[in-house]
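Model: Ready when you are.
Researcher: Fold this.
Model:
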Amino acid sequence: MTFTKTSQKFGQWADSRANTVYGLGFASEQHLTQFAEKFQEVKEAARLAREKSQDGGEFTSPALALASHQVPPSPLVSTNGPGEEKLFRSQSADAPCPTERERLKKMLSEGSVGEVQWEAEFFALQDSNNKLAGALREANAAATQWRQQLEAQRAEAERLRQRVAELEAQAAAEPPSAGEKEVPSQSLEQLEARVQTKDQEIQTLKNQTAGREAADNTEREETQQKVQDLETRNSELERQLRATERSLEEVRAEREHARAEVGRAVQLLDMRLFELSELREGLARLAEAAP
């Protein structure tokens, strides 16, 4: 069994022999790290225990005991002519050998492990893609806010210019007296100073916005390029995953076919053994009835 980290809070527990993959989610990255460390400790302890048990004595299993009590193969005698004997041998020769079964098991396990690795990489790429999309949305929101501030400053400057024009028109239409001339001039100077200040602020905001937009455009282009690369890689991984699934289906079909061939061979062997036992019983009865 293997445990693979696919993101900061997600991991995959894979069992290649059972062809099973479990996805595990954690509350924090620390919990994921602790689980992975404990998993490796338990796996190492199990390996040491298995090695110790193997060093302590020879391992015996019910399958080996059953194989030791099987009757050794003996040449079969056909009572219906040589043609039937040839048919039996050709059918039994079609049964898969142990090497073929081992090859099928190996292909199946390798395909399962490869599928787990590709799936883990796919989830990691998907997480990175989500992060890049979030950064792009934040950059767009910041640019929109800067544009709104610039529009507000422009509107304020335009309003002040209109006010200055109105005051100038009033001053030109009604010539003030000597005592009243100082107050409008001071007000006009204050308004002109405010207009200049607003113009400077607008120019500063323009410069900041231009720099920000250039940086945002560069970052947006880089992000879009990364997203395209990730989409291309995701497509490639999906194609490889589909190819692996097809190969797994082919391996499973071959394994089922091999099982069916072995079952037919076993049935034919049982039938031949039954006929052989009947033949022996008939020969024994003939031998007893002979004078």
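Researcher: Now this one.
Model:
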Amino acid sequence: MSYDKPEPGLDSGKRKLKYLLLEKDNRVCADCSAPEPKWASANIGVFICLKCCDVHRSLGSHVSKVLSVTLDDWDDDQIDSMIEVGGNAAANSIYEACIPEGVSKPGPDASHEERSKFIRAKYENEDFLEPSLRIMSNSSDRDSPKRSSSQKFVDDLRSSSSKNTEAMVVFIGILKVKVIEGRNLAVRDVRTSDPYVLLRLGEQEVYDQDTFSADDIMGEAEVDIQPMVTSAMAFGDAGMFGDMQIGKWLKSNDNCLTEDSTVNIIDGKVKQKMTLKLQNVESGEMDLEIELMPLDS
């Protein structure tokens, strides 16, 4: 399987999937580290090899929905699910968080029995989850079909509340927002403007400050913090890791990004820089940096 840059002829969904596969941790099987995985579990969010694929199929599609990266047709929800989980590193930080002593991850040459035992424990029984996630998983599955923990993880973060299921609100940190620069902003006064930024949960607005009249709006843009929150919760204590990319918010026609925005661990902190094209205005871009600060910092 080639890991060259995706060809221009691919549709946007397939291109996103190919770019995700290019990331270093996705170039080996999530379960046995065999090189060049050609299969994926769409609902769990991992890339896997052919031998591990056989075990995943035996779990049933309600646990692991197996698709070929190159041969099968993927719908938008399946591709979005893979991207939101973040690939092998993010999923394994959840599913392999607490592998006990005496349990070894199978290698590329492992037998079918060794693979089956480990994969069933990892995904079907969810034996290696953090204890807190295991409790949340068990309580939320009582009256619903089984879903992967990575998908439940993403779904729980999407939902602000639920009336019919047991829920637990978890505060993971404080969001610090730094406005770096504005460029080509619209002019609202005769000669110039005095812009300032008003931040609300979910969006930002840029205004021109006026002394003798109402301030004029100079554009607005929505900021999706889901990729940062999902990545930060998947990796836990960022101080335990070196500098690395842990997530990505992809540019699309449905958001204000001018280019893909990556979520990174830098000096033990989770940070994300982005450039946003201001909406509902004739011109303007805004550079932001957001940082997720732990509650105990």
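Researcher: Key takeaway?
Model: Confidence is low (pLDDT under 50) at residues 1-6, 135-146, 157-170, 202-214.
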